[in-house]
Amino acid sequence: MKKLLLIAAMALFTVGSYAQIDTPAPSPFAKMEQVVGLTEVSLEYSRPAMRGRTIFGNLVPYGKIWRTGANQRTKITFSTDFTVGGKELKAGTYAIFTKPQATEWEVYFYTEYQGGGAPREWDDSKVAAMVNVPVQKMPMDIESFTITFDDLKSDGANLGILWENSYVGVPFGVPTDKTVSAQIEKVMAGPGAGDYYAAAVYMAENGKDINKAKEYMDKAMSMIETPRFWQLRQQSLILAKTGDKKGAIKAAKASLVDAKASNNADYIKLNTDSLKEWGGL
Question: pLDDT per residue over 205-215, tens digit each?
Fold first, then answer.
């Protein structure tokens, strides 16, 4: 009898261990990405369905903080700084919480984006921005909770929140003009120190015109207030290749001093070896 019970128990365990069935999530996860101007914006949220229920004012009560979706908190990520309601926010990830009302919603960008549901204890210090947005009634119902990027412009867009027969469009701005203007000013002003330096190193390391490389390196060093040991090291190598041993030794010694101050053993050895080779030690 005991043997039969043991066999039966083992059979049930075996069946149970293989009975793993995947079923669809009631509120499917969604992820979308949108480029607005020059800013990459990504959104992650879950999408509950109406299923014959009254949503706003019932399933989602008026006047209470809502997670704005289901399951994990709805998260939005910006690759650049951006603005909401005239307030500038830093690039990064934020949770989106809302407080629905019949005619207007409060929309919150909350710095604590990890976790599920609304915070047990609301912390105003974590509210990066809040904006009041009017509710627009639609002539039809939206069965699945939906968030969209609408009215795309080069300097912003609307984050559209749709469910049941309500639409809430949350405007946000991105610094496209500021970014492009800065690029224009940089290009019009000519190459910077980094551009000259990179060109000089590339030309020297790839057997290009070494005199041109020296010219670029001279321009780069004239634009750098305090050259560091790795920059001085490259300058010394270029000067050595042009035959200017005196200049190469001077640059290598300066690099060695900074490398020692920075406790960089690799550059200490490189400079010491070169100085010995060039007769600088």
Answer: 999 999 999 99
CATH 1.10.287.110 fits 191-278, yes or no: no
What was the pLDDT predicted at 281?
A: 87
* β partners of residue 40: 35
- Which among 170, 158, 159, 162 has a CA at the least distance from the CA of 140? 162
Identify the CA nearest to 152 among candidates 21, 35, 31: 35
In a 3-state reduction of DSSP, which class is residue 133?
A: strand
Amino acid letter for position 235: Q
Residue carrying structure tokens 């190193």: 201
Q: Burial, 252: exposed, middle or buried (Cβ in 10 Å; 0-12, 13-18, 19+)?
A: buried
Whether residue 170 contacts residue 133, with contact meaning beta carbons closer than 8 Å, is answered with yes
What tokens were used for 3?
A: 């043997």
DSSP label of 124 = G
Domain boundaries, the chain: 24-175, 191-278
DSSP state of 125: G
Counting every residue, how long is the chain? 281
* Residue-level pLDDT at 23: 83
- Condensed to tens digits (0 to 9), the pLDDT of residues 195-205 reads 999 999 999 99
Query: Token pair for residue 200?
Result: 């000089």
Residue 249 has pLDDT above 70, yes or no: yes
Among the ranges given (64-68, 71-75, 184-188, 236-240), the one the predictor scored with the smallest mean pLDDT: 184-188
3-state secondary structure of 121: coil
Cβ atoms < 10 Å from Cβ of 84:
22
pTM over 0.85: no
Both tokens assigned to 195: 């551009």
Question: Coil, helix or strand for 89?
Answer: strand
β-strand partners of 83:
88, 173
Decide if pLDDT at 248 tops 70.
Answer: yes
Question: What CA–CA distance (Å, rounded) separates 203 from 246?
Answer: 21
